[in-house]
Write a structure and sequence with these properties.
CATH superfamily of one domain: Jelly Rolls
Structural class: alpha+beta
Strand content: 15-25%
Number of helices: 8
Shape: flat
CATH class of one domain: Mainly Beta
Helix content: 25-40%
CATH architecture of one domain: Sandwich
Largest sheet: 7 strands, antiparallel
Distance between the termini: 134 Å
Order of helices and strands: HHHHHHHHEEEEEEE
């Protein structure tokens, strides 16, 4: 009798129900264990990805050229050529001739000329003698080989003001910068012709000049030709011919003038 009660249908049903409850409880425990990881993954997916740092691309010489047809002299410049350029620049800054510097350094004018032209590789002793004659450390002679280059920066309204008198009254020049070294001189001016300005067409100097009209209207003469210049117009000419503003039509007139000329030895 007792065996029938224990092993009867009622007990089997109860045993099955207990098994189902245990299985459900075990499944819930697994779900709870997995849910934090899922939440963590969801949270991680919402965070913005770290921005990758882009490396500078390697550039060849063609990438460094602009649209200008100027030769890329730096690409083929030798150490000897760089030394020669710096020696010449320092000599000219001291207003010395080749003969004078050669004598001070104890070398011939012919050898110094070859050094300045980059035609020979001078010894350290010769470079030391040149540096002492130029009153600079020997490392200065290698400056042209470095990446350092001359640069002139002028804030708006701070250019050196030059005002003309007499026949050039009312012509105001603001020097916007200047080349500090080298064989070519460059002088950029902002020129303003005030209400009281008078025409003047007798300017004449070495080199070439570039004009870019900013405001006003002027008829500009170059040699035997005249050009009506309005904002946006440009004029480029040989400055050895007589030139200047001939007819001041609409004042005030303002234009950019860039003068380029070879420096004298």
């Amino acid at each position: 009798m007792t065996r029938d009660v224990i092993g009867g249908p009622a007990q089997r049903r109860q045993s099955m129900a207990d098994s189902e409850m245990a299985a459900r409880s075990k499944s819930r425990s697994k779900s709870r264990a997995k849910s934090p990881a899922k939440r963590t993954q969801r949270g991680a997916s919402r965070r913005p990805a770290a921005r990758a740092v882009r490396a500078e691309p390697e550039l060849d010489l063609d990438d460094l050229r602009t649209g200008s047809s100027a030769p890329s002299e730096l690409a083929n410049r030798t150490l000897e050529a760089g030394i020669g350029i710096e020696v010449r620049r320092l000599r000219k800054s001291l207003d010395l001739t080749v003969v004078e510097l050669g004598a001070a350094a104890g070398i011939s004018a012919g050898m110094l000329s070859k050094i300045e032209n980059g035609a020979i590789s001078p010894s350290l002793g010769t470079l030391d003698a040149l540096a002492k004659a130029l009153n600079v450390p020997i490392s200065r002679l290698f400056a042209e080989s470095d990446e350092r280059r001359d640069c002139s920066f002028v804030k708006a309204g701070t250019g050196v003001r030059i005002e003309r008198r007499g026949t050039k009254a009312g012509h105001k020049y603001d020097l916007l910068g200047h080349s500090l070294a080298g064989e070519i001189g460059v002088e950029p001016y902002l020129i303003t012709l005030a209400e009281d300005a008078v025409p003047y067409t007798q300017f004449r100097h070495a080199g070439v000049e570039f004009l870019y009209m900013l405001s006003g209207k002027v008829r500009y003469r170059h040699a035997d030709s005249t050009y009506l210049m309005e904002p946006g117009d440009a004029l480029f000419f040989d400055a050895a011919a007589r030139h200047g503003p001939e007819d001041l039509i609409e004042a005030p007139m303002q234009y950019l003038s860039i003068i380029i000329y070879p420096r004298r030895d």
